[in-house]
Amino acid sequence: MENNSESRERILKSSKEDFIDNSNGNNNLESEYKVNDLRPKQFLDYVGQESVVQSIAIAVSAAKERGDPLDHSLFHGPPGLGKTTIAHIISREIGSQLIHTSGPALDRPADVVGLLSNLNKSDILFIDEIHRLSNSVEEYLYSAMEDFRVDFVTGSGAFAKTINLPLLPFTLIGSTTRVGMLSAPLRERFGLSYHLDYYSIEELSKVITRSSGILGLQIDKSSAKEIAKRSRGTPRIANRLLRRVRDYCQVKNYGNLHIDIVTEALDKEGVDSLGLDRLDRVYLNTLFNNYQGGPAGIQALAATVNEDQQTLEDVVEPFLLKIGFLVRTSQGRKITNKGIVHLGYTVDDNIQGKLV
Ligand code: ADP
Predict the structure, then answer these.
(1) Each residue of 224-240: pLDDT tens digit?
(2) Domain end position, chosen among 210, 242, 269
(3) Which tens digit of pLDDT belongs to each residue from 106-136?
(4) How far is the CA of 333 from the centre of ligand 1 (A)?
(5) Cα(186) to centroid of ligand 1, in Å?
(6) Helix, strand or coil, per DSSP, at residue 346
(7) 48 CB under 6 A from ligand 1?
(8) Which of 26, 160, 203, 286 is 20 to 30 A from 51, comparing alpha carbons?
């Protein structure tokens, strides 16, 4: 059998290209922060999700005190709620390197072996969309996570040999919008698992006020609240809308942001008073008009709306479910009376077949 340190060296060299490709140039923590100035860099700046932050902060300082890597951690919840941000904060707090990759990017076992063998002690391997890992790649992670080692076979037939590659103790941080799609063996290997929930309007107002400060904008409380109300409980959307309002204000030479400009800019952007955008409205209208309010299957809906099914399931539906405009039954999706009224119809419009 090949000497362990030799094989480690060899894989380190041969996988250098994979390593750079998979991290998509984001393996340097500093460059990540330059690209996105609005990302909070410490727990203190991270708005909301108090119980998650408290618990992870304790786990981080305990691990640091012992000189151990942090337990493998899983963050789940809708997109844009701060899962990646927490991973970056953890790596800063620990003072380790974060390697950023994603489930679909790791399509060959060699990719994951390459990444793992490059990790230093306490480094963080961050896998976004971890539910999209292939089965073969996932199997390599089991022993890597549990015993800090990977076993793989080189050659074939009579020349096949198993190589046991020891790894330095690292932390795997997984992020997913679909925790239910993770296999049980993978899920069970995470010592810490947290669900991130939508943010309140007050929390989003804080995010917007903080981001305005970083972008050098003056914003009053009511304007921040108006953007927050239309941000679907999601900091990423809050920051995006703030940038759109800033552009609008700049092009129209309006000076500081105030409520009238904000309302005008967001209306022009097609974001309504509850934060629903064009796709949300097309989805609800299709359900109401083409499927008599439902129940309708997601595949049929995706085909009619001409949108990717996963986008509907991950981005559109969670918020519509949360605000009670949509219900999911065993027969399919149904629009609620609340949703119908928001579209400007009455329940009778549909029952009497006026709109079908
Ligand atoms: P996810 O990984 O869940 O899709 P991200 O961590 O990429 O979400 O967050 C999207 C953006 O929203 C970040 O760039 C950051 O600017 C902002 N953001 C997320 N969570 C927070 C938070 N708790 N406080 C302030 N800003 C946040």
Answers:
(1) 999 999 999 999 999 99
(2) 269
(3) 988 888 888 999 999 999 999 999 999 999 8
(4) 29
(5) 25
(6) coil
(7) yes
(8) 26
